[in-house]
Amino acid sequence: MPEVIDQPSDTEQPLDLVDEVDIDIDQDALERLNPRVRVVWIVESIITAVVVGVIAGGVSWFFDYPYLEIGGGVFALLASLGIIHAILRYRIWGFLVREDSLYLQRGVLFRIQTVVPYVRIQHVDTSRSPVERAVGLATSVVYTAGSRGADVTIPGLHPDRARELQERLKGLANVTGRDDSV
Fold it and tell me: Which of 12, 52, 101, 175 suits a disulfide with 8, CB 3.0-4.6 Å?
């Protein structure tokens, strides 16, 4: 009986030929967010804490419980957690515009590393919420091809840096898109 050699088919690639995404990044190379983004995140968490505290106080009042203590306690707990989360979130957040992709690192409890190849970028928006405008910051939103809601947000940028990043990513996406077209 002839010896059968197991060879990969045309659709399979040997494991050693499969390209792996390089996410081993030098932490010093990452571009960090503007420190004022912590103010934005703290204000947003305090607004959330106020709303939830008022709701908790209203429910407590309805059931004849001490509504001021419960509402105030809920507010204090959520505001404290929000402040701690904003500080830790800032320490982790970073991004890098690489040769072939945009790399993002974020997350407090769960670390998330995202690599967005330029060929997948559809368009890039720059936005500024009222709180961001008050502290002089902007957010860049990178929309990618893929499933619904496939977008990446880079908060805490100076408005000029956000516009510069928008133009640079647009240019890199255009160049990459032409090179990879069929």
Answer: 12
